[in-house]
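CORE FACILITY INTAKE
Project code: CF-77B
Contact: R.S. (postdoc)
Sample description: multi-component assembly, two entities in total
Requested service: structural model of the whole complex
Turnaround: standard
Below are the sequence entries exactly as provided by the requester. Do not edit them.
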Amino acid sequence: MLCCVKEKIGEAVLPGDLLAFEIQNSENKREKLICGPGLRRDGEDVFVCKSGILRHKEPNLYWIDLQQRRYVPAKGESVIGIVTAKSGDVFKVDVGGSEQASLSYLAFEGATKRNRPNVQVGDLVYAQFIIANKDMEPELVCIDSCGRANGMGVFGAGGLLFKVSLGLVRKLLSPQSEIVKDLEKIFPFEMVIGLNGRIWVKAKTTQQTLIVANILESCENMTTEQRRSIFGRVSENVL
Amino acid sequence: MMEVTQSGSAQHAAVLREFGCEHSLLSRPDGSASFVQGDTTVLAGVYGPAEVMVSKESFDRATLEVTLKPKVGMPGVAERSKEQCVRQTCEAALLTRLHPRTSITLSLQTVHDDGALLACCLNAACMALMDAGLPMHCLFCGVCCAIDQQGTIRLDPTAREEKESRAVMTFALDSTDCRVMMSSTKGSYTAAELQQCIAVCQRASESIFQFYRDSVSRRYCKA
């Protein structure tokens, strides 16, 4: 179905919908258009390949906002992985995708051939993808381009790891997240959020950890008022 | 939507039974949906793109597996043939080249069968694949019709109507041009009757696609 893109911003679109963009000047000036997740180019046309809400950011970025649960690795994303095997010079890490990612033992801060990092099978690592496309095995690193850890590496002594949908982690990681601000007021806790839908939390006692985990898991389908009322009830019971 | 047209001596009654669907009702699969047509209900769950066994993996596309379980008993040859019909339709609609060396598993469960089962399976599969967020280049829907002994074309027949008719046909139609993606027919009919059935099903598919659109907008605007 061909539809004008300006009408459809903020509305739900279905796979197969063709988007028509108005060309401002009818001269040969070519405008650059950035198609985000959910949109694909087929020759001269842009069509929708996933169902969701069409979003637009000035000046020329369009994407589809969808609720998805399965993670597909993408370059540059920071995820929480679980180390599953040590084979030679690489660790095999499960990130929740279709295949396991590899993490070289030299990709940690201060690691050399003689000074190996202390990583065991079953450890949690917070790492970033440097290679993640459909044709190659994904690769992770725990250092940034300057060689510093920058918060990445092995973590997680104690605490609880659980899985939520990808939409919720994006909401939590957005700069002015209301959920995180409301949560901070209840009691202090540590939280690591991976873009693959995994969240690790640790609070002072086991009960507080479980409370935070339950609140985050149920946050997805609540409106703001329902969430505020639940947070209010929890903070009354805790104090 | 009731259309009764008289062409020569044959009368066609083109009415789809009431249909409805539910999204994301199962917690473990990546996408799930249930589709109800009259009394026929099918539940679909999708897992993917996930790990694949090396023996089944394909170097340039995703491997799609479909399983259909009947309400009672073990799956037999009839279920296997329906699985292949659904699998071929889904492979044509999905962009499998975006996820090579992965597997996409679609599980269908018949909750109640009152006719038009293959069409209901196709509709439930399409909704579940959309719910899982798998990339597709078009949507598809399933429409079933039957030709009874007098030559009347009935859309969406019940199980009793299917038994009494001389031919039962199921078509999978795509959303961009309403073309036939898959057809599964049983019984005896002429070539002209086949063309009439395809035309009737194409008209009916528009209401199903409109329903998909309303259902998706209701789901996303609520969230």
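Facility notes:
- The CA atoms of residues 119 and 142 of chain B lie 4 Å apart.
- The first strand of chain B starts at residue 3 and ends at 7.
Invoice: internal transfer
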